[in-house]
Design goal:
There is one protein chain. The protein is α+β, with helices and mostly antiparallel strands. It has a single domain, classed as 2-Layer Sandwich (Alpha-Beta Plaits), CATH 3.30.70. Helix content is about 45%, strand content about 20%. The protein contains three helices and three strands, in the order E-H-E-H-E-H. A three-stranded antiparallel sheet has the order 1-3-2. It is globular and about 35 Å long. The two termini are about 10 Å apart.
């Protein structure tokens, strides 16, 4: 899986989920439950993951939706 971003900000996660769902791109939000359990100290950020074959199009869509600043650098 390719990691698109990581954050503790639920608003960003919701916006990303909306973009990806709207374009039928399968994704997974890792560590969602751990982030909630640890509280608000920000020790465990949530990560949005997509299959490698969707990474390029997902990055382009998120950049177009003005969420590009949240994207992790390409490896």
């Amino acid at each position: 899986m390719a990691e698109l971003l990581r954050t503790n900000q639920m608003g960003i996660i919701a916006a990303v989920e909306g973009v990806l769902t709207g374009e039928d791109i399968p994704y997974y939000v890792a560590d969602r439950n751990m982030s909630v359990l640890e509280g608000s100290i920000g020790a465990i950020p949530m990560r949005v993951l997509v299959a490698p074959e969707y990474e390029d199009v997902a990055r382009a869509l998120l950049t177009e939706a003005e969420l590009g600043e949240w994207l992790r650098p390409l490896k």
